[in-house]
Amino acid sequence: xxxxxxxxxxxxxxxxxxxxxxxxxxxxxxxxxxxxxxxxxxxxxxxxxxxxxxxxxxxxxxxxxxxxxxxxxxxxxxxxxxxxxxxxxxxxxxxxxxxxxxxxxxxxxxxxxxxxxxxxxxxxxxxxxxxxxxxxxxxxxxxxxxxxxxxxxxxxxxxxxxx
Length: 163
Prior knowledge:
Blueprint: H1 16-26, E1 33-37, H2 43-50, E2 55-59, H3 63-75, E3 82-85, E4 99-102, H4 106-119, E5 125-129, E6 140-145, E7 150-157
Helix pairs in contact: 1-2
């Protein structure tokens, strides 16, 4: 078993109230390929394609969650614009991404950093919720007051934040 096989991230869905903030911060547009690493039920990717991204990619290791994501996308009428990958995000190529969204733990973001640096093209936007990418400098941080807590969104740009 490798180090990566031992990483477990609990699924905690991104709250609906944050989805518009994520899309605005990422500046999702018609030329974007939006990746959600650990997409859970697919709500973030569905919102991205409904917000104008040309394609979404849902990467989720849990087979029951990827099935929920597929069903949700079908109900929302955008299944044809989303690719569903029931795989470990450490093993999925991400070079096609123009936007990457991650609601993972800081330790996982740290472990993903070499992959992001090696595979993402300069200019790719990376948005994380609540947990920073250690060693990268965010270009913008947005705090959002939720009913039960403050949420923090970090925007990174490959080629800027990682220098």
